[in-house]
């Protein structure tokens, strides 16, 4: 009779170990999905970065033009 309880305890321990391994795999898979951005998200981020860099360059060019115009206007007024 004692062997029955031993085998039962071993069976329960194996089942819990298997369940824990499945949970660990599921958590690792979920973390992997969260950490890697999707192709669409990465593409949109690159497009947004390009637009941002382009607008920055345009603003710098306009700023230089306005600064030159202000210098000319101030020089003419003096």
Number of self-contained structural domains: 2
Structural class: mainly alpha
Number of helices: 2
What's the rounded overall pLDDT mean?
84
The termini sit apart by 111 Å
Low-confidence stretches: none
Topology summary:
Layout: H1 2-35, H2 39-77
Describe the structure.
- The protein is mainly α.
- The protein folds into 2 domains: 1-36; 39-78.
- The protein has 2 helices and no strands.
- The longest helix has 39 residues, at 39-77.
- The model has no long low-confidence stretch (mean pLDDT 84).
Highlighted features:
rod-shaped, 2 domains, mainly alpha, single chain, 78 residues
Q: What's this, in brief?
A:
The chain is an all-alpha fold and 78 residues long. The protein contains 2 helices and no strands.
